[in-house]
Amino acid sequence: MVNMSQLQTYMKKQLDEDRQRQFVHVSGESLEEALREASIELSLPIKRIEYEVLEKGAKGLFGKSRKPFMLLAYPAGGSHEADSDQQFDSGFSFDDVGEEQMRDGQVFVRLTPDGVMLKVTKPEHGGVRATERMAIEKITSRTDAAVDSGMVSKVVRLADGQFVRVGTFDYNPASDAVLSVEITDQEMKAYLTALPPGRGGGDPDRDTILNFLQGNGVVEGFKDDVIDAFVDDPLYKEAVLVAEGTSPENGADARVVLNFESDSSKVQLKETDGKVDFKELNLVQNVVEGQVLAKKIPPERGKPGRTVTGKLLSANDGADCTIQVGKNVRLAEDQMTAYAEINGQVTLLAGKINVEPVYVINGNVNLKTGNVLFLGTVLVKGNVDDGFSVKAAGNIEVMGNVGKSNLDAEGDVIVHQGIAGKTAGTIRSGKNIWSKFIENAMVEAGGVVAVSDGIINSEVSSHKKVICRGKRASIVGGRIRASEEIDAKTLGSVAGMETILEVGYDPVSKKRMDELQERKEELSKELEEIDRNLATLESLKRQKGKLTQEKVRHLLEEQKRKQEILKEVKKLDSEIEEIQQYLGELKTHGRVSASGTVYAGVKVHIKEASLEVRNEFKAVTFISEANTVKVTKYQETDDDISITRKS
């Protein structure tokens, strides 16, 4: 053991050694770089250098150094060399240096009945090690008791974070630290104040502190981390918050979470190719049958609180609520979920959730409404302006006109005025199409196409019939396809405009076959061109005996493309053969009728039979017999083409 005089001699020796040492101030963007600089200045390896961090570095944006490390470095001596070796053998990585994670080694001293207790912790993430000098200074600041310097040195080197006895003193329990507690904030906080121990007295341990607090009425909300920190490093003559009550928390009220946007004023615009598409306003919120529209979050129970003295503080439970439902919406048995009963538009009216099967637009489809997509029936009380689309899983009914627009319905399409497609408008219906007229448009129907005033320069396909009835019920120009029948008052025009009428087969399959044959013809022309190129290259090779590298590459590319074309043509032939077989098996005979005049320029195709009209006919029906188009007396269609629909 050493006494106070010996400690003073030791400290004086350390100061003399410090004066004799060579100190250098170095800096670097990292701790590693600063130590390398010190190694150069002192002409020593890094492991034989001790240092003190004067200023910690910090990283800026993108990992670049914002503030350099500043070190005071000096040669290691005596036990410091071992310390240094231990530091650099401990797995420290310079890449881990960071301002937030770095922590220096620390020294803790406690005075207990067993003696003077010392604890030293290791540095973390590049922090500075605690030194023997720091330990001696901390001990002498707490007591003048004799300590074992060798044990102090060992504890510092080990730095295992455990308290170890390094000295003894004459313990006097009467001189122990004096504790007091103050309970404030309506018994929600407890502050511990301790007076330092007198000569021979000891620091309070955890059990002493807890027993003292409990003996003075503090039984809840202990801050264990604060108490542990106080035990390790007592903070005397200052009030320390060691216990804190828990406030009561009222339970959250029940609430309904909607699975749709209830505020129609929140317009969501789509961006296409970097540009905002003002046609895509997404004003209609579609739902399907069985879709979850809303869920109820049940109320939460309140969480009572407690004071530090153990008094219970009551809390209120959350209030309950219900999901309010209207038309075409049902609640689950537990009343916690609302479901759509039909496809349609979901709305929130007067706090109730409704699903409407019909979406009504009280005006035109334009920039104000945007494009329309609805899982039900759409009723437009105005026009559909050029450039806009209406798509519906039910019917589409337009009270006005349809311009260069796109209408697509799984059900019927009804246009009360007419369709003026301007060569770009498209109308598609899964069922029937009714319109006053069709002009310069592309129309496709799964059922009947019925027109009162006529069809002009349009491409119309029907899986059943195309019927024109009325005073001006004429078909002039374009191509009309129908599986069963085409019937109009007038076919063609006085001017002899080409009007192609095709019946007796599935128009979709026939259209597909036409596309396949057109593609095959394109490939055949390309194949002819490739064969000519290959022949030229082969001739050039025979003449010169060898082709240039560029010509060889061109030859290989042409050969590869030829194989691709032959493969595609084979697939086309297979699909064409399937369609031809399907069309040949159809039992539909097909007929074309005109109650008025059929003008020259009309071309009639009934299955495989064809007829180009060169002379006018009156009130006739064209049929197919023996693979020939035959002209017979007009036979009026017996179908009822009046508009029948559900509103």
Kindly summarize this structure in a few lines:
The protein is of the alpha/beta class and 647 residues long. 24% of the residues lie in helices and 34% in strands. α8 runs antiparallel to α9.
What does this structure look like?
The strands form 9 sheets. The chain has a 21-stranded mixed sheet that branches. A 4-stranded antiparallel sheet has the order 12-16-20-19, with no helix packed on it. A 3-stranded antiparallel sheet has the order 1-5-2. It is built from 9 helices and 43 strands. The longest helix is centred in the last third of the chain and has 38 residues. About 3% of the residues have low confidence. Strand 17 and strand 18 form a beta hairpin. The chain folds into 5 domains: 143 residues, no CATH class; 72 residues, no CATH class; 102 residues, no CATH class; 121 residues, Pectate Lyase C-like (3 Solenoid); 57 residues. It is 24% helix and 34% strand. The chain is elongated and about 140 Å long. It has 647 residues and is of the alpha/beta class.
Principal-axes geometry comes out as elongated
Largest sheet: 21 strands, mixed
Question: CA-to-CA gap between the ends?
Answer: 105 Å
Number of strands: 43
Low-confidence stretches: 78-99
Q: What structural category characterises the helix and strand content?
A: alpha/beta
Overall pLDDT confidence: 85
Question: Approximately how much beta-strand content do the residues carry?
Answer: 25-35%
Percent range for helical residues? 10-25%
Number of helices: 9
What's the structural domain tally?
Answer: 5
Backbone CA Rg: 47 Å
